[in-house]
């Protein structure tokens, strides 16, 4: 019982990261109908930027205080958003209206470019950050297996909850969110109502990248080590999460992320950690075979 | 109010509009009639730059809007109720109306909402309902209401009666007339239902294969033997 509960906590923490990245995939798919395969790299860049900020702060003699953590978060969000914006301008906007294959290839090219760019500028070796704060909260120890939640895990869950709540509020309640959804449903009509569709698409990439940056920073906190390849696996898993939840559906991306995190945690704990990726990708195959619209996605019946 | 000077438009290699000259003066209802595929809807969307006019000029209140992007044109006091209504099906009636207010950046929203609700009371009762679940007539009212939320000076209506029951069509036409006579709204109306359109219009144009072949007052066109033969007798 204690062991299972512990896996639940581990899975939720893991899933929070996937969910944050998955939102970027699903939003971009919703608005321009393409999979942004460079999105995993955006997450990786977010992680690097938070490490760079940490190193910079340390060089200035600042310790791992909450203020430094906030600086890591905001610097990472700001610059990663800039990367997300640039990726759309450079690799996708010129191809708007081109056959679907063209932006897909462009996305893969962008992904390879960003990986190599980080490898060249930051080096290929693993970057590590010492654990910023240790210790954990003991939740339950009645059993012979004590259940704990690390402070970093707790931070990850709380930050993710705050970010996702704020994000959901923005999409459902604000004028921008309304315009964003209008562009998803009928971009031509949206333009006829005075909505600048290109600007909305740019903002969608910026927001997706900002959420990926939060995920990158959370990964740094949790694992303490990153290198230029982490975007690939995390990206594909988040993509799986988005497909599982129903590509195009934002609540679906959050749910899919959590489920993938849980599957990974439980599979590693009870079956075999070596095969956890196999489990995730089997889900991708099964969903595509039996329920391509995902859990919360709806089949596209209202196409005119 | 609106003036088209020798406007042509193409879809790829296919010419959809050829040298169209058309004027809508402030306070008028002008109707554009023609068969399916004559280019009526193309003319409406070309005003908004999709497709962009391949030659000629479009003037709105004296200013050249030919080269402006669609979302900028929408901010110049011209609103379109498109063919097929195109309401945002997954959003509520209320959200659809708010989106219509985009050109005003949120100004006068409450006041315009009240105006739309008094014009179409059914929209107020359906306020929280998803637009996709409304009946065809209600969706048409929503599409018109959405356009009115931007306080347009010129309203473009593309086939507002398409696929609606006769009773609903009558309501819609009555509203169009009321908007013009009581609120002074200038209207350009595209209709297949030529008889009804010509009855309420001050002037009309007949479009054939992308060209204006005839123009005149509503009454004159109604009496024209050519128009009668081509557009009125067949459609009862």
Any descriptors?
heterodimer; A: 304 residues; mainly alpha; two-stranded antiparallel ribbon; two-stranded antiparallel sheet; B: 236 residues; alpha/beta; Rossmann fold; six-stranded mixed beta sheet; 10 helices; 37% helix; 28% strand; globular
Structure write-up:
The complex is a heterodimer of chains A (304) and B (236). Chain A is built from eleven helices and four strands; from the N terminus they run ααααβββααααβααα. Chain A is mainly alpha-helical and 304 residues long. Chain A has one domain (2-119, 150-290): ABC transporter involved in vitamin B12 uptake, BtuC (Orthogonal Bundle). In chain A, a hairpin with a 6-residue loop joins strand 2 (136-140) and strand 3 (147-150). Chain A is globular, with a radius of gyration of 19 Å. The radius of gyration of chain B is 17 Å and the shape is globular. Chain B starts with a strand and ends with a helix. Chain B is α/β, with parallel strands linked by helices and 236 residues long. Chain B folds into two domains: 1-77 and 154-236, 3-Layer(aba) Sandwich (Rossmann fold), CATH 3.40.50; 86-152, no CATH class. Chain B has helices at 40-47, 70-73, 93-100, 109-119, 121-125, 136-148, 166-183, 194-200, 218-223, 225-232; strands at residues 2-11, 14-24, 29-34, 53-60, 63-64, 78-81, 154-158, 186-191, 203-208, 211-217. At the A-B interface, helix 6 and helix 7 of A face helix 2 and helix 3 of B.
């Amino acid at each position: 019982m204690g062991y299972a509960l512990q896996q639940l906590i581990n899975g939720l923490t893991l899933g929070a990261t996937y969910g944050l990245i998955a939102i970027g995939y699903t939003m971009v798919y919703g608005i321009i109908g393409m999979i942004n395969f460079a999105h995993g790299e955006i997450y990786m860049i977010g992680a690097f930027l938070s490490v760079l900020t940490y190193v910079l702060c340390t060089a200035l003699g600042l310790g791992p205080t909450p203020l430094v953590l906030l600086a890591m978060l905001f610097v990472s969000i700001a610059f990663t958003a800039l990367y997300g914006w640039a990726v759309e301008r450079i690799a996708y906007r010129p191809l708007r209206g081109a056959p679907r294959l063209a932006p897909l290839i462009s996305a893969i090219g962008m992904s390879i470019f960003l990986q190599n760019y980080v490898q060249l500028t930051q080096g290929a070796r693993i970057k590590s950050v010492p654990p910023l704060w240790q210790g954990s909260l003991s939740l339950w120890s009645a059993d012979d297996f004590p259940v704990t939640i690390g402070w970093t895990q707790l931070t990850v869950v709380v930050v993710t909850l705050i970010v996702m709540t704020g994000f959901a509020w923005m999409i459902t309640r604000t004028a921008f969110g309304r315009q964003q959804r209008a562009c998803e449903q009928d971009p031509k009509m949206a333009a006829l109502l005075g909505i600048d569709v290109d600007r909305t698409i740019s903002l969608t990439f910026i927001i997706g990248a900002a959420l990926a940056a939060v995920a990158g920073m959370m990964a740094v906190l949790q694992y303490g080590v990153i290198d230029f390849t982490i975007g690939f696996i995390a990206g594909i898993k988040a993509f799986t999460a988005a497909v599982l939840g129903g590509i195009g559906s934002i609540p679906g991306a959050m749910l899919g992320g959590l489920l993938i995190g849980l599957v990974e945690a439980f599979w590693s704990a009870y079956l075999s950690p070596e095969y956890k990726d196999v489990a995730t990708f089997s889900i991708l195959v099964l969903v595509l075979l039996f329920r391509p619209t995902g859990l919360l996605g709806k089949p596209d019946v209202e196409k005119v | 109010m609106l003036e088209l000077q020798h406007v042509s438009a193409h879809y790829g290699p296919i010419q959809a509009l050829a040298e169209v000259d058309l004027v809508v003066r402030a306070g008028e209802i002008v109707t554009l009639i023609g068969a399916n595929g004559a280019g009526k809807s193309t003319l409406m969307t070309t005003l908004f730059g999709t497709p962009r006019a391949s030659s000629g000029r479009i003037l709105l209140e004296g200013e050249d809007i030919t080269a402006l992007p669609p979302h900028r044109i929408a901010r110049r006091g011209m609103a379109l109720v498109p063919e097929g209504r195109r309401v945002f099906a997954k959003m509520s009636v209320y959200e659809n109306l708010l989106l219509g207010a985009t050109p005003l950046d949120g100004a006068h929203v409450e006041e315009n909402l009240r105006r739309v609700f008094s014009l179409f009371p059914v929209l107020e009762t359906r306020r929280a309902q998803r637009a996709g679940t409304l009946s065809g007539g209600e969706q048409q009212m929503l599409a018109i209401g959405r356009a009115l939320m931007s306080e347009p000076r010129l309203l473009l209506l593309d086939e507002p009666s398409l696929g609606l029951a006769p009773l609903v069509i009558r309501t819609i036409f009555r509203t169009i007339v009321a908007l013009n006579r009581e609120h002074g709204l200038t209207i350009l109306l595209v209709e297949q239902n030529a008889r009804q359109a010509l009855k309420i219009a001050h002037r009309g144009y007949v479009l054939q294969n992308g060209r204006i072949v005839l123009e005149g007052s509503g009454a004159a066109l109604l009496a024209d033997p050519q128009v009668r033969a081509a557009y009125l007798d067949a459609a009862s």
